[in-house]
Amino acid sequence: VCTELEKENANDSDQVKKERFDLILNLMQEMQNCGQPPEELVGEQTSLFQFDNDGNPMLPALPPGVDPQNCSIM
């Protein structure tokens, strides 16, 4: 991903920019499919959320009496 981003040039044609965008998007999706990066690579991270086995954040339950329709995340 970094290598492709570093290739970016202000004079690139729209076609080159689109091809690079598509390639970077695919690479990022492949990385995301692998889940969280290993601790050896990124170090110990503290997170506001816990993650499930698929790498998705597990959001805390809403407080009693709060209408889920008023939640901007859900």
UniProtKB/TrEMBL annotation:
Q: Which family does it belong to?
A: Belongs to the peroxin-19 family.
Name of the protein: Peroxin-19
- Drop me one GO molecular function for this one: peroxisome membrane targeting sequence binding
Q: Give the matching Pfam families.
A: Pex19
Q: Which domain of life is it from?
A: Eukaryota
Q: What organism does the record attribute this protein to?
A: Bracon brevicornis
* Database matches in PANTHER family: PEROXISOMAL BIOGENESIS FACTOR 19
What would be one Gene Ontology cellular-component term for the protein?
peroxisomal membrane
Q: Which InterPro entries match?
A: Pex19, Pex19_C_sf
Question: What biological-process terms (Gene Ontology) are attached?
Answer: protein import into peroxisome membrane
